[in-house]
Amino acid sequence: MPAGDDHNGGRLRFGPDGKLYYSIGEQGHNQGANVCKPIDAQRIPTKAELDAGDHSAYAGKVLRLNPDGGIPDDNPVINGVRSHVYTYGHRNPQGLVFVGDLLFEAEHGPSSDDEINLLVAGGNYGWPHVAGFRDDQGYVYGNWSAAPDCEKLAKSYFPTDIPASVPQQKETEWKAEDFREPIKTFYTVPNSYNFRDGRCGDMAYLCWPTIAPSSVAYYPANGPIPGWGNSLLVTSLKNGALYRVPLNADGKTAQGDVAKYFHTPNRYRSALVSPDGKTIYVATDVRGNALGNDGKPVNDMKNPGSIIAFIYDAKQ
């Protein structure tokens, strides 16, 4: 399977159908140290590649596998090929959760538009042509890897400052019949947004309108915490917080604003709800960069490499 030094995704879940679902990021291509490498999130494997055991096209995908590693007979046929690919067009999918037979996914956006997606077999989730909604807001696809002088440009790379030699494409200029928009974003901003906000200095990305969603869990409709029922719970790496996304009664769409809880100077890696619904367990990273309580960057984590229990007390 593809792997690299960035955007590996790496979430593995059993579905109610007995199949394994596995997320793989696009390896951080077309940005940072990998800016001159092309993104393969839209590339579908060929039969020849599969016959040769070449899975390099699986980058930027969510896979569906038999427990023995085989390709399920009912996997979607995309571009005439049935492979392990269940959905494609993903950037860095770091959260997967089943709610009944529905599969939700949390995905890192670039400098805006982290996504919560409802995954549908054969769906194309747009990356790198679209970030979040196809609205031409806050994002233009700059294909740095296709620039003839990419190696030179890489020395002064900044994602939202796209040089003239880098091919560009607006979101609405890209069309795909199987495109699926997210049910929620963190956050959609106008084109006038200042991504060089000086509050975060050399770590400007910490001030961008993103949360770096690292996992997603489900809080059941009959849970004891008032107002939390039937919600997705999303952990944030850079904000050290838990975000609650209420679902509509149909269980397939999100409603209203998200709510933020439990902010601490940490990187929240994964969350799990206790069987009785009264405790939210959150695992933290040992190290990294995050926003402190004053909204400024910190790299000294308050609870490094820990499991924090947030316990609901009805008497409080």
What are the key terms here?
globular; 3% helix; 21 strands; 316 residues; mainly beta; single chain
In short:
This protein has helices at residues 47-51, 150-153; strands at residues 12-14, 20-24, 61-65, 77-78, 81-82, 85-88, 92-99, 102-108, 114-119, 141-142, 168-169, 184-186, 213-219, 231-236, 242-246, 259-261, 268-273, 279-284, 290-291, 297-298, 307-311.
Protein described:
There is one protein chain. By secondary structure, this protein is mainly beta. 3% of the residues lie in helices and 29% in strands. It has 2 helices and 21 strands. The strands form 7 sheets. It has a 4-stranded antiparallel sheet with strand order 1-2-3-6, with no helix packed on it. A 4-stranded antiparallel sheet has the order 7-8-9-12, with no helix packed on it. β7 (92-99) and β8 form a beta hairpin. The protein is globular, with a radius of gyration of 20 Å. The model has no long low-confidence stretch (mean pLDDT 96).
